Amino acid sequence: MAVKNCWEEQNCGDVRNQCPAYPDHGQDCWRVAGTLCRGKLQGTPEEKREFCLFDCGFPEKVAKGGS
Questions:
Q1: What integer is the mean pLDDT of 35-61?
Q2: How far apart, in whole angstroms, are the C-alpha atoms of residue 29 and residue 44?
Q3: H-type helices in 1-67, by residue range?
Q4: In a 3-state reduction of DSSP, which class is residue 41?
Q5: Element (DSSP H or E) covering residue 37
Q6: What is the rounded (10 degree) CA torsion for 55, 36, 23, 4?
Q7: Residue 23: pLDDT above 80?
Q8: I want to staple 25 with a disulfide (CB 3.0 to 4.6 A). Which of 21, 54, 59, 67 is the partner?
Q9: What is the mean pLDDT of residues 44-64?
Q10: Is the torsion defined by CA of 34, 45, 49, 59 positive or negative?
Q11: Cβ neighbours of residue 20 under 8 Å, at least 6 residues apart?
Q12: pLDDT(1) > 80
């Protein structure tokens, strides 16, 4: 199964004017500063590294090729 974009996986709704990961970084959102995740504004990639890699789980799904 193809990997969804982060905003689909996290059920963010319409992110077109809200999230800097849209439209080109839906599968590498952890590399983008200021993304929205679970309704909260995230910081720089360095600041959100632990959350993205250990709490979110989305990067791992991308690495495995499916959600």
A1: 87
A2: 11
A3: 6-9, 45-50, 58-64
A4: strand
A5: strand 36-37
A6: 30
A7: yes
A8: 21
A9: 89
A10: positive
A11: 32, 33, 34, 35
A12: no
DSSP 59: H
pLDDT > 70 in the chain, percent: 97
CB 26 within 8 A of CB 12: no
- Ramachandran class of 65: left when φ > 0, alpha when ψ lies in -120 to 50, beta otherwise: left
Range of the domain at 54: 6-64
pTM, entire model: 0.80
Assigned domain for 1 exists: no
Q: Which positions ≥6 away from 16 have C-beta within 8 Å?
A: 22, 23
Number of domains in the chain: 1
